[in-house]
Amino acid sequence: MKTSVFLTVFSSVFLMASNAVAEQYPKPEQRMVPLALECRSPGVIALTFDDGPSANYPQIIDTFEYHNAKATFFMVGSKLEKQHHIDEAMLAVNAGHQIENHSWDHPDFTTISNAQITSQVDKTNEILWTTLGVVPRFVRPPYGRIDVPKAMPIWDMDYGIALWNIDSEDYRKTSLLWGPGKVLDKINGILNTSSPSEDSFIILLHDASDTSIEKLGDILTTIKEHGYSIVTLDECVDNKGL
Ligand SMILES: [Zn+2]
Fold this sequence. Notes:
alpha/beta
């Protein structure tokens, strides 16, 4: 009797362990791109939204649908512990937008240990998989703060680091000198001095920023008027000659 109880307990522990292994998230299938700062080919622009999910997702998704384009959303893992954020995120997943990893709770990676960075990336990968069925490929370090020693644990896990080459500055508070028009003006100003035959861009935006959201349709329109195609980050780093 004692033996069979022991065996039952042992086998259920073993089964739990097997389940834990079986529930680990899958690894990305695409080739690893160590650092994304611009796209592989000229003429394309990836718009990336950090810090979500948020209540602005439906409006962003509608705007991209109207322009027949896709965005890339860098999500904060801990937000996916709340059902309303999972619902917002699923809107983006179902509409075919790209979903990526923006850490668990948004620490400055240059101020935490490598083990903590690994945990930030790992926990976010896990919740992206368990709540959304998404396998991310890139990590965007909060505030864009990263250096080679702090990138090593991320590269060791086979994830790339995604930064940007246009900062919309949409995190600035609206004031007499700064507002939605200025975010659009800044992007316009950079595009005016660029050439789609030579340049490509990854633009940093924030979905919770009303300054970006108010002018998002105009931002997408001006990108097209300047002769650029709007792409996901995957298309940005992989595709030639879009
Ligand atoms: Zn952020």
